[in-house]
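Re: the pair you flagged

First of the two:
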Amino acid sequence: MNLKVNGTGPEREEEPRDSRGIPMMLVNEVSWLMWETVRRQGAVHPVSQKSGQLILIELAKRDGRTQLELAEATHLKAPTVSVSLQKLEKEGYVSRRPDEYDLRATRVFLTEKGRELDERIRGIIREQEERATSCLTDEESETLTRILRKLKDNLIGANEEEKRF
């Protein structure tokens, strides 16, 4: 940003923006605002790192996954998942148990404390989503969801390609 000084003080002179970057910046801001609201309302994830949050979200979708399944679902590296699970387990949000059919595998489950946290966070997110999308028509909301899914799928595909090289 350029500053221009006049007789009354500095004025902000807007720099030209690359319009292609604005949508993703807005997506990031909306995400930050959503999680900031969750934090302010006291439903904070036990692990401040995004990895712990992603793991809890994935376990809430489908409980009893292996560490490898969690790494694939969250697009995190296996060591990151391992360290995050240790923290989550220590705080009492997850538990690990041997797979009943394959004793070499360990399954990860949300504890009651983990489920309660997930429910509290989901409630806050539902409220915020209703507030945020109340200005949209049903068609606009469906279009936004479709576009965001396309962006997500495209980024996942690009990340998978990068891993191969």
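Second of the two:
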Amino acid sequence: MLSISASAAIWFAPFVLPVCLYVCFTDMRELRITNQAVATLFAIFAIVGLIALPFDDYLWRYTHLAAVLVAGIALNAGGVMGAGDAKFAAAAAPFIHLGDLRFLLALFAANLLAAFLSHRVARMTPLRRLAPDWKSWDSGKRFPMGMALGGTLALYLVLGICYGS
């Protein structure tokens, strides 16, 4: 059982899932996560979080955003991740219950491997012809991390609906 309440996951999912899909799509197409997507994700938490969470939990979740933003800025400065990835991860952090952190890291690791392999396989097969102009196909070693980040948040909320406390 996950620590996130099923009720909170039900409230968040209809608003967050389209943003996650959009992030996956735009990162594959343009190799960037737009500021509009990050701002929308933050706005969803700011508004829906007031309804979905107890007020003290709602306020504490902003510390998740701050901690992940600081870590993301450091990783971006070190060249480990893109700025859009860092901003998206920070905006996604308040949706995560702290008790689910270990589960989320495992989910992210599995999702990262699956996204990386599926992207690499797709770009070497005729599937590539479905979207021939996507920048991620010809990006060398660069990988659209939005696939893994958006997919992880989406899966976490869906699993929260099914297995939340």
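Residues 6-163 form one domain.

-B.
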